[in-house]
Amino acid sequence: MKPLQIIACLLSLSLVSWLHAAPPINTFNLPTASPSPTPPPPELAEYIAQGKAAYVRGDIEGAKAAFQMAYQIDSRNQVAIGYLRRIKMDQQTKPKSEPIEKQLATVIIPQIQFHDATLGSALEYLKNAVKRETNGRQAVNFVVQLPVEQMNTKTVTLNLTNVPFTEALRYLGTVASLNFQFDKYAILVKPTAEFTPAPAPVPAATTATPAIPGQ
Predict the structure, then answer these.
(1) CA distance linking residue 44 with residue 94, whole number of Å
(2) pLDDT per residue over 65-81, tens digit each?
(3) Given a cut of 60, is residue 201 above it in pLDDT?
């Protein structure tokens, strides 16, 4: 083989090796395909929707729990992160409210005089007294879990002066066998003993006197 042929052969082999080693050339300047991102799990969207709905209706704790679950699934989810930051700021700036029992303990009722008053009228009086003494700033809601007959027939007698509302309830519960349970938005009224209706009065028996002829 001639020297020129040998040199040409070597150049051809070098060119082939370089072409195999070089990266592919995008001749038409087209966008290269990139791997598609992994779709988020459906649970993430469900927790986000639950959190938004809870936040709108004022259930801050429920919203916080839902967004925390979403954050555990995707720690880079901007919706969950944004709402968690907003909830944290709301909780830091919102004044803490005292329990209803503690609030009502500061309400002093000047005079309570019940003389054979029905339970229904007694509770209504206490409800109006709280509204009156606080100029409408405080309201009381009773959720009565008693038979209607007991509310309308059982009577109580009570005489108190300058007594806190919570103490008035305690005295009323003692004389009427009631249990008052303070809930978040209301006061539950429950019986401490089973109510037995009073027996109906039996009319006195009368004896007819036979008429005497001639009288």
Answers:
(1) 29
(2) 999 999 999 999 999 99
(3) no
Angle between the N-to-C axes of helices 78-93 and 42-56, in degrees from 0 to 180, rounded to the nearest 10: 30
Smallest CA-to-CA distance from 166 within 109, 98, 121, 117 is with 109
Contact between 150 and 127 (Cβ < 8 Å): no
Domain residue ranges of the chain, discontinuous segments joined by + = 42-93, 100-191
pLDDT at 206: 45
In whole angstroms, what is the distance from residue 119 CA to residue 180 CA?
Answer: 13
Answering whether pTM is above 0.85, one says: no
Return d(Cα 193, Cα 52) in angstroms, integer.
45
Helix 42-56 × helix 60-73 angle, to 10° = 160
Instruction: For residues 75 and 71, give the distance between their C-alpha atoms in angstroms, rounded to a whole number.
Output: 5
What average pLDDT does range 69-95 have in this prediction? 89
Q: Does domain 100-191 have CATH number 3.10.50.40?
A: no
